Amino acid sequence: RMSIRILRRNNERKQLIVKELLPFFERNNHGVTTMQFKQYLDSRCKNGKYNPEMVKSVFDRMNEHVDIERGSKKISVDYLNEFSDAFIEVEEIYKRKQLEILSKKNMHTDQRYEFEDRYKEAKAIEKTNDHGIMEGSYLTVRVVEARNLKPMDNNNSSDPYAVVSIEDQKEETQFIESNLNPKWDETFKFEIRTGKHQLVILVLDRDLYAADDFQGKLTLDIMDFKDQMKVDKWFDLHSTNPHEPWQGEI
């Protein structure tokens, strides 16, 4: 099982948000709920009410850090940094969607020209590359576990580890001794320079006195994660020969 997501570096913006939200989170030291955060944003919103779908999206991105109490999601101050990252990502996604929608509306000529200028300025600030991925983005890959791997050793088992690579960047997990259902739970970050390359995961069997054995491969397009939503799922492993049946998931 793997958890994969594109994030964007925005340190200055994050520092401002953390500084602003810290007193609010400390006042609610038992955890901030979706409703409390919505009310807080409404109180600071100059143009009416804050979009509830944006608030929901922020909390959805925090699922692995959420406590459920009486049916309500709660985020503690311990996860304020992660919460600020999620808030920035959601704001940027909704801002781009809003600009794209507005740009397609029929406007008076002067209004359209004025809007197009603002739209170009906003796009320039975002600095997306030729593949539509914002500059400064990085890919987080959490390699959680694998199951039903193909045994490669004489004892009908394996010592598996995973190698994760994108472009010329490469990381690998620890190997797990004698296990066909290994649990690694290791997270890696990769800089995204173009978006045209692929994320490649190799599962190998560690051998002491010979070359490590191939146990499966997974190849994913970076563009599949362009919307910045986290993907958390099982993936089938494949052989190097696309026509050869294989076994195992990661």
Automatic annotation (TrEMBL):
Q: Which InterPro entries match?
A: C2_dom, C2_domain_sf
Q: Name one GO molecular function term.
A: metal ion binding
The answer on whether this UniProt entry bears the keyword Calcium reads yes
Alphabetically sorted, this entry's keywords are: Calcium, Metal-binding
The record's section on Pfam families has: C2
C2 domain location is 119-235
Q: What is this protein called?
A: C2 domain-containing protein
Which organism does this record belong to?
Euplotes crassus
Its organism's taxonomic lineage begins at: Eukaryota, Sar, Alveolata, Ciliophora, Intramacronucleata
